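Usage

Read records sequentially. Each one opens with the input sequence:
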Amino acid sequence: MPRLLPLNDGNKGDKGEQAKPLLALNPARFPLTMPLRKGVKRVQPQKEQRVERRLAAIFAADVAGYSRLMSQDEAGTLRALAAARDIMDGLIAAHGGRIANTAGDSVLAEFPSAVDAVQCALAVQEKLAKAGTGEAQDRRLQFRIGVHVGDVVVRGGDLLGDGVNVAARLEGVAEPGGIAISGAAHGYVRKALPLAYTDLGEQQVKNIDEPVRATRYDPS
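and closes with the structure output:
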């Protein structure tokens, strides 16, 4: 570091004396950072959630007329929904499915095969129909179920992507207490499950660019 010039008071020139130079400050003595206080931990950057893509059979269900039922009898509807969910959740697990997302009256699950998903949907509607016996028709809690086979994105356990959207839109095609499956799903199950289906043809559904071929099964 360069030294500072000495101060000259003008009175010592005759004897040739010079003032001692001032030393420059050493920056090493003054660190710019302070040590962490005792007990304080460094915050580690969060890792991004791993995103996985895979082909899955998607099961989407919601309650037909849920808002109307809630407005008529909120407490009774919530009790009926809890009882129905107990039945549905147990059957999804029994058929090898995994519940991914739930919100209010809706349930989204994935299965390793379309046959498992459709068999589960049939069992759910059959059990719920028996459980609702004796309820007035306008007070009966009925689910609509859509099943589709497609590509999904799995993030943090949730299911996302176009495959999920198609399954959710198929719910609207199903009748209360019924099931609607996509053409892709029907291709897998039509021989494995010899059931009576109604071909609904190409359906233009909300927020899906291309028409979706739908097949409906309404349990009696």
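Summary fields computed downstream for this record:
- Residues 51-217 form a domain with the Alpha-Beta Plaits fold (CATH 3.30.70.1230).
- The two ends are 94 Å apart (CA to CA).
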